[in-house]
Design goal:
Blueprint: H1 3-6, E1 11-12, E2 17-20, H2 27-34, H3 37-43, H4 51-66, E3 70-77, E4 83-91, E5 97-104, H5 113-128, E6 133-138, H6 143-152, E7 155-166, E8 169-181
Helix pairs in contact: 2-4, 5-6
Length: 185
Amino acid sequence: MLSILQNRLPIKVSEQYLIRHINNDDSEGVFQLYGNEKIAKYVAKKVHSSIEESEEFIRIINERMKRGNDIYLGLCEGSSQKLIGIIRFLEKEEPGTLTIGYAINEEFWGQGIVAAAVKKLIEIINLEGGYSKLRATVRPENINSQKCLDKIGFELVGSFMKNEIIDNREVQRERLLYVKTLETY
C-alpha cells in the first residue's frame, strides 16, 4: 500500500528540500541524527556511537521495507542531496491507519521543514484513498514535535504508557497520542 509514495520518489517539498530513498551513502546523515543525543532520545532506543551503527541501521530499515508495511523516507537538501531527516510510515494492525514518525537534524529545527514535507506526503497518501487516519506518538517533553503535529492538523486524543528497552532494561514511558483524519476521495 505504501508503494504510492515509493513510486513518486523523489518528491519535491520546496525549492530547497526533497524526499527520496535512503541509501548506503546516507550513513553520515543518519549518524548526525541518531548520534545526536538531543534527537535520539525522542526517536531511538540507543544513541549511535559510530558510523558503523548508522550503516547497520540503514541495512535494518531496508529489510523492514522489504516486508511492505514500513517505509523510511529521506528528507534532503535539494541541491546537495544531503540527508537531513527521516520520515517513517508504518502500517499496523488497525486497518486504514498509518503511524508516522520523523526526525530532523538539529541544525534545521524550528524551520517548518518537517511540517511542509509531511503535508506534501499527506497529499499523496490522500490520492491513494486507502487510509483514513494518521497517528503519531510523542513524548510529553518533546514540545517541538507537538508544535509540528499541531501545525499539520493533528489532534491530541490522549496519552498512554509504553514499555521500551533502554540500556538493556525495560522502562515505562508516557506517550501522547495524536491523530489526523485523512481525506477520502
